[in-house]
Amino acid sequence: MDKRDYPVFCSIVSELHGRRGVSLSCYDNVCAGREDWFVPDFSRGRYLHLDMHVGGRVGWEFRKRYPVFDHAAIARWDPISVAGVSVPVVSPEDELRITIARFAFRAWALPWQQWVTIGGGWKDQISRRPILPGGSGSRVVEYTLGGGRTVSCRLRQDDDGLAAHRGDLAKLRRAIREMGGFMGRYGIADAAVHLARKSSYLALRFLHRLMPGSFPPKRRPAAGGFVVALIGPDGMGKSTQADRLTQTFRWKFGCGQAYVGTGDGNGWRLRKALQALVFPYRRRLKSLAGNDGEDSRGRNGPRQGVVAAALALWAVLIAFERYVVVKRAHRWATRGMIVICDRWPQALRRGYLDGPTIPQHLFSIPGLSALARLEQRLYQKMAERRPHLTLHLVSDFAVSEQRKPGEIKKEAFEARLSLMAELRARDKSIRTVDASAGIDAVGRELFRHIWLSL
């Protein structure tokens, strides 16, 4: 891009709801005159990565600092037509010069080798371009750099494929450094910085896999991290959409996923082991705790106090786990990550939508009242840490019954929808999404809400 066109470019991308990404300094794409922009495609629920450069820069993989090709250096522009629009692109000859200049800083060979083999994608790019004939079966690519200085690079076809002359590549590197105002002859500083950046890059990649979310991501939105919460009754597709959205945003951004429920998602091993142990008795235990020790048959159980205490401890354990997940989600967002949360705690009503579960009457029982107050304080602290964007997935009971038969009763489903409506009345920023549509349609709508809020 021409530097004079940069304000126009920003205006166009802004009208397309584009977002700029910010990268860590240890990566190769951090240099003056280069930016990452992302343009959404709401019709597909995806985004396009624009690798924008002001002029062309070459250098080591993690040290691209030599601005050698700008619009004035391009000898010819060839127009092409895209959807009826004429777009000027560089001529094949200029594209060849740019490609070889980039390869010159990536070339590597043993000290006694005079010719450097060009392989991989470099060979495909160079082979498609016209090259001037030279002597001894070689072909020549000529450069006219600053001050009228001319540099040439010889290429030839050998048994291993296309090869470039080692000495010509070295001369081209020196000429590019001098033209950019860097007079160092051997570029030792570039090699050292490249090695340090690549080492830190590989170390961070390893640590990200070992401890996800513990370090800043490679790339993050310019406005910083973001916490998104998907809330809805069972059968609305929260977990499915959380997985899809995480995969979509993780393509180029640092993105993590958090689960705040007590179902099949990720959670503490202790809680999941205890949950599997008491799962067959959960209904009777809830009945005992909710009726002061009297079961559904009207008889007082001898261990009603023990049952009530166990359920209170269980509720506090879940509250602690959720509190840790909420804090971790905001900590990841502080480091620049996009965090997709499956569910989010609420403190408005007990027993619904991942809210408090200790019955109100236990507040008057000595011993258990302390646990009840502790659970209440934890949910109040979680209520203070709201997501940056809350999305409610709503539909009718028939959709939930079709997707998860027998998972939830109609009365409980309607109670959750009523609570969600009450939450939206208190917080006007909460958005609603119709979950009765197909998976792709719901995913596109969720993507649109998240992208416009970044």
Defining key terms:
41% helix, elongated, five-stranded parallel β-sheet, single chain, 2 domains, 454 residues, Rossmann fold, alpha+beta
The CA-CA distance between the termini, in Å, is: 26 Å
So, CATH architecture of the largest domain? 3-Layer(aba) Sandwich
The strand order across the widest sheet is 8-12-11-10-9
Low-confidence stretches: 295-300
Please report which band the strand proportion falls in: under 5%, 5-15%, 15-25%, 25-35%, 35-45% or over 45%: 15-25%
Number-wise, the strands total: 18
Average residue-wise pLDDT: 83
Describe this structure in words.
The chain has 454 residues and is of the alpha+beta class. The chain has two domains: 64-184, no CATH class; 211-277 and 319-453, Rossmann fold, CATH 3.40.50.300. 41% of the residues lie in helices and 22% in strands. The chain contains 13 helices and 18 strands. The protein has helices spanning 6-15, 92-104, 120-127, 166-179, 188-210, 238-249, 269-278, 282-290, 304-334, 368-384, 397-403, 410-426, 439-453, and strands at residues 19-23, 34-41, 46-53, 56-60, 63-69, 77-82, 85-90, 115-117, 132-133, 138-144, 150-158, 161-165, 219-221, 226-231, 255-259, 338-342, 389-394, 431-434. It has a five-stranded antiparallel β-sheet with strand order 8-12-11-10-9. A five-stranded parallel β-sheet has the order 15-16-14-17-18, sandwiched between helices. Helix 6 (238-249) packs across helix 13 (439-453) and helix 9 packs parallel to helix 10 (368-384). The longest helix is centred in the C-terminal third of the chain and has 31 residues, at 304-334. It is elongated and about 95 Å long. It starts with 5 loop residues before the first helix and ends with a helix.
